[in-house]
Amino acid sequence: MSGCSSGSRQSSTSDACKEPAAKGSIVVMAASSMVNVLSDVEKTFLTTHPCVTGITYSYGSSATLATQIVNGSPADVFVSASEATMNTVKNADKTVTINVFAKNTAEIMVSPASRFASKITDVTSLSDSVNSGITVGLCVETAPCGTLANSIVEKAGTSRNTIADTESPSVEDLITKIEMGELDAGIVYHSDCKYAESRNVATCVVIPSAVNSTNGYYVAALTSRSIAQQYVDYINGSEFKSVLQSKFGFLAP
Amino acid sequence: MKQRTSPSLKVLAGIAAAFIALPLLSILVRTPWSDLGNMLSQKSTRDALSISLQTSIIAALISCAFGVPLAWLLARSQSRGLSALRVICITPMVLPPVVGGIALLTAFGRQGLVGRFLYDWFDVSLPFTRTAVVMAQVFVAMPFLVLAVEASFRQSDKGLEEAARTMGASPSRVFFTVALPAARPAIMAGLALAWARSLGEFGASITFAGSFPGRTQTLPMAVYELVSVDYRLSLVLSLVLILISVGVLAAMRDRWMVGR
Are A181 and B110 in contact (CB < 8 Å)? Predict the structure, then answer.
C-alpha cells in the first residue's frame, strides 16, 4: 500500500520540481523545544518531499529567533513556541500567515543525581525556604518557556526570584544543565521532560492543572517559495500532529 | 622629519580605521541621550554595573596575585616541559570563551572532576554563583597578564638579579626587591588588560555562572539579553562598556606609545 502511494507521489512531485526554482533546500528557524521532534521527522519529510533537497535548522529561544528574523536573518520557515513571539514577526511583515499546530504544558524536570530528587514534589518545593541549598533554573522571562514558568510560579504563590538560581537563554540550555546534574531541577515543557525521562536522564514531577499553564506552537512560511509552504503544510498536517502527540507528549492545538 | 606615505596606502588605512570607528560611533549616534540618566538609574542597570565592576576588579587582582608568580616561573625556570606549560596557560586567550565555560563546568561543576568533591564533602556548589563569574573571568583574563609580565621579566636585566644573589639575597628576596619593581609597568599594564578583559567577559561566564539579574548578570550579559527586549537600554549599556574600554586605553596610553 505504502509502496504504491509513495511511488505515484514520487513521480508527480519530481515533475513539479523540474523548474529549478521549485527545488532546493530550506532554512527553518525553530523553538528549541522543537529540536527532538523536527529531527525525528526530518528523514520522513525529505523522502516524501523530493523537491526539498535539504533542511538547515537554527534552534534557539523563540524570542531570539524572532528578533533575528525581523532584523533580516534569512529563513523560509519560523516555528515558534508562543503567539507573542510569532506576532513579533507578523507585525514586521503583515503578509505572514500564522497557524497554531500544537500545545504544551509545563513540568518540573528533576536531575536523578540531585540530593533533593525525592524532596521535589511541587512548585513551592523548589524554593530555598523549603529545600535549603536547592539550585533551580528557569528560562529567561523573554523566552516562551520563561513566560510559562512565570505564570506557574505566580499561581503557585511564589516568585521567580524566590525559586530561580539561574536563568537559561533557551529551554535546551536549561535541560542540558539539569541533565548534567549542575542544576537540581527546572521548569521545562512536558514534552521535553517526557523525552528526557524516556532516556533515563531525568525524572518529571507533574504540575497540577490548577497551577499549570499552556503555550501554543505556531508555524509560518516567511518566503513565498513553494518548498517553504510544503514544510509548513507538513507541520500543519495530521501525520506530524499524531507524531507530536503520541511520541512526544504534545497536546492538540 | 615628516615621512611620506603613498596615497593608496592612505586609502586602505582609512578604510581600516573607518571600519573600526564607524560601529563604535554609531552607538554614540543612536544612544537615547535624553533618557540616559533615567536608564542608567534603573535598578537592573545599576545591578549589572555593580556586579560587573565588583567581579572584574576581584578577577584582575586574583589574576595578578597568581599570574605574576606564574610569569616569573615561565620566564626564569629551566625545567623541561615549560614550553608546554606556557602553551596550556595562554590557551584561554585564543579559546572561544564558551568552550572555557564548558571546561570550567567539567572541572568545577557539581558533577565536575574537582567540583564533585567540593559538593559532596563541603557542600560547596560553584556554578551559577558570583564566585563562578569571577572564576570565569580569571580563566580568560589571567593569560593576558601572564604574557605581558613574562615578556617584561625576560627583558629585564639579569645582571642585577645575579648581583643581588652573589651578595647573599635569597631567591624570594631577589624576586621581591629586584625583579618585581623592574616589572612594575608591565604589571600595571597586565592588570589593566586583565581587568578590561574581565569586564567584557561573556561566553565563559554565561555558561559557567549563568545569567541572573542582580546575582550573576554582568553588563555584557545584560546587553545580550536586552537586545531582543529593550534595544535602547542595550545601547546605553553598550555605551557604558565602550566608555570604560576607551578609559582603560587612555589611562594606559604611555604604555601603547612606547617605541614611538
Answer: yes
